[in-house]
Amino acid sequence: MEDVLRPLVVIGGSLAITLVIGWAVDWLLRRADARHPETPLWDRLRRCRLPLQVTVCTALLSGSYDKTEASVVQRHGSAIGQLLALVLIAAAAWLAVRVSSAIVESSYSRYASSAHDPARVRRVRTQVTLIQRVVAAIVGVVAASAMLLTFPTMRTVGTSMLASAGILGVVAGVAAQSTLGNLFAGLQIAFGDMVRIGDTVVVDGEWGTVEEITLTFLSVRTWDERRITMPVSYFTSKPFENWSRGGTQKVATVFFHLDHSAPIEEMRERLREIVQKSPAWDGRDWNLVVTDTTPSTMLVRALITARDPDDAWTVRCEVREKMITWLRETHPHALPRIATAPAAQPPQTPLERERAHERGNERRTTFARFEDGLHKDAQPPRQGGFDAHYDAQPPKQGYDAPGPSQGR
Questions:
Q1: Taking residues 258-286, what's their average pLDDT?
Q2: Contact in structure between 199 and 307 (CB atoms under 8 Å)
Q3: Residues 6+ apart with CB under 8 A from 284
Q4: Which phi and psi angles does 390 have, rounded to 5°?
Q5: What are the pLDDT digits (tens) for 121-133?
């Protein structure tokens, strides 16, 4: 009976103590969060309850499993102890990552709520994200090393590996050159303020927003919901456009190819009405000028300012749509077209009109003389017409004409 009760007491007691500790820590964190609602740390630490309970339970079982005196423990005591040690190391690493993430995220939340510069907020967010990933990577490497060192055979291997650490480091550096390059490029991006999460960038002709930055790659979400994943070393070795760098304000331009008769002043008035009613216009400036001409059209540019690239795109589409609709309804002649009629002649001066009149009189006189000559040269038609003329001529001797003997 004792062989059954002792394991139940040890395991049940460990579970009960774990639940009590988890409930007590959660109650204390809720009290602290209620007293200090301006600090998000206490609420974020509540997410560490599960790894804390796993760590506490594993630690209690590691220290008391040999007190059960069960036959299974006596036969496989070393294996059970090894398994509990591995679980304890993994749970402790899990708890450390959760605690560090809660501390870093709470610090970022407090900074973001008090900061007024969106660019600095995005910069801090990028740095915080990469710091979390670096901490998680370091904790994971340390935990994996500690788990391997729990095996007796790995301790001997570790001793021999330390002797050749220099050679292994050189070999690993050469083999993982691209990986290490991306790693250092990620740190350079995080603390060099080259590109941040939430920045609007143009990469290889693709326009999008930086969605994620890791130590090895960067993800850009395009306007049509596609994801472009690129190595972070690209942004440290090649030029790219960052529309959010130095401020989010943007200037939107719209070009119109119009006929030379387009009413520019009325177009300026119409543009003013459109931008004043548009919520995407930031109220800074607008303008409309003729920037170029061709033999058939002229190029009109409308310029409108916006708060960010998204508003610039919206106001650009709105101005283009409403301006073309207004021109089509009120000034259709201003739209470009292909001219198939003769061009209008400029007005003539009195001297040019007199010369044209004299040239017309000369043409009429010449034509009258030509008609008179035609009448004089005309011959009267012969009597009898074509048939009489044909009958008057004798038949020709030939194949079809009858000869002297044939007539007989």
A1: 90
A2: no
A3: 249, 305
A4: -70, -35
A5: 777 777 777 778 7
